[in-house]
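User: Last request for today: this protein with flavin mononucleotide, please.
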Amino acid sequence: MKKILTMLVFFVAVIANGAADGAADAVSIILNNFGAARYAPGTIPKADLDKIIAAGVRAPSARNRQPWHFTVVSTTALAQKIVGGITEGNVLIVVSADSGNAADTLDCALAVESIYLAAQALGYGSRIYTGPIANINSSLKNDLGISRERNAVAVIRVGRLASNVDAASSASPRKSMDSMVTYK
Ligand SMILES: Cc1cc2nc3c(=O)[nH]c(=O)nc-3n(C[C@H](O)[C@H](O)[C@H](O)COP(=O)(O)O)c2cc1C
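Assistant: Here's the final one, the structure of the complex with flavin mononucleotide:
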C-alpha cells in the first residue's frame, strides 16, 4: 500500500510540474514575442502549418460566432503581391471577417494574435501586417478567393527565422508598465 501511495505522489508531482512548466512556456512565448522582419528560405511542414491555423480556429469570439476565414497563401508569387520582400517558403495567412463591424474585427484580431503566437511557440518567425489590407480589399479578393462581402482584417506572415535573429535582438521596446497600468 505504502509503495502504491509513494508512486501516486510521484506521478501527481510529475504531472503538476509538467503543467506548471507548460504555463511558464506559454507566458514566456507571450512575453518574448516579436514581429520577425528577417527570414531564411525553407518550407513549413504541413503538420506545423495545420497547428498554427488551428490556433486561429480555436480563438474565442463574442457569442462564439467565429466570424473569420483563413486564406493560406503558400505561393511566393501571390504572397509577393501582398507583402513585398517575401522569402521563399514564407506563408501568409489572410484573416477576413464576415463584416466590417467592430465586433467581428475584434474577434478576428484575437485569431490573428493566436496564430502569431502559435507560430512563435513552434519556433517560427511571424509578423502581423495591416499595411496590405486596403489593397487586398480593393484589388486582391479575386486572386485570393475571398468573397466580395468579406472584409480582410490582417495578414500574418510565418516563416523560418533567419539564424541571427532572436527575441532579445529583434523585439522593439515597449513603454514602461508604470505609464500604462493603473491599479485601483
Ligand atoms: C495590428 C498590427 C499591424 C501591423 N502592421 C504592420 C505592417 O503593415 N507592416 C509591418 O512591417 N509591420 C506591421 N506590424 C508589426 C509592428 O510594427 C510590430 O509588431 C511592432 O512595431 C512591435 O515591434 P516588435 O514586434 O519588433 O516587438 C503590425 C503589428 C500589428 C499588431
